[in-house]
Design brief:
Helix content is 50%, strand content 16%. The chain is built from 6 helices and 4 strands. It is an alpha+beta fold. It has a 4-stranded mixed β-sheet, with helices on both faces. It is globular and about 65 Å long. The longest helix is centred in the N-terminal third of the chain and has 20 residues.
Length: 145
């Protein structure tokens, strides 16, 4: 019984330390570079620049978010398209800004990707992970409209 309690305590300690030390990858030498700001500020910037807005709603505890950061969002193809043509914002859903986002746009899965037109209209919402090719398709569609 003592071994079970010890193993359980060790597992909880490891999980707690992983959660508190993880920092999302918001800048990349090749991939998408994200700003950390509120949805309202991002929508205002989008409107002023006449560029569509991409919001990456993530969580520090989300393994799918981490995987997307490492294998999808860091790709040069995406960086070239998104950094030039869109306003890119990352919002942690557990932050105060994330809670405000969820009041207007409910989040059922992480990550959730929101795509807004420059007039503030929500064009598309993607729940869960997606591919770089799908993100390029969405970007082209947004830029053409």
């Amino acid at each position: 019984m003592k071994k079970i309690i010890l193993l359980f305590s060790l597992a909880i300690s490891i999980l707690a330390s992983c959660k508190s030390h993880y920092k999302p990858v918001l800048t990349s030498s090749q991939g998408i570079n994200f700003k950390v700001t509120s949805l309202d500020s991002a929508l205002n910037e989008s409107k002023a620049s006449k560029k569509p807005l991409f919001v990456f709603a993530h969580a520090s505890w989300c393994p799918t978010c981490r995987e997307m950061e490492k294998t999808v969002l860091n790709q040069k193809l995406l960086g070239d398209a998104y950094n030039n043509n869109l306003i890119n914002v990352a919002i942690d859903i557990d932050s105060s800004t994330g809670k405000l986002l969820q009041q207007s746009y409910p989040i059922r899965a992480t990550p959730t990707l929101f795509f807004f037109r420059s007039d503030g209209t929500l064009e598309k919402k993607v729940e869960g992970a997606t591919t770089a090719l799908e993100l390029i398709r969405i970007e082209k569609q947004l830029v053409q409209n």
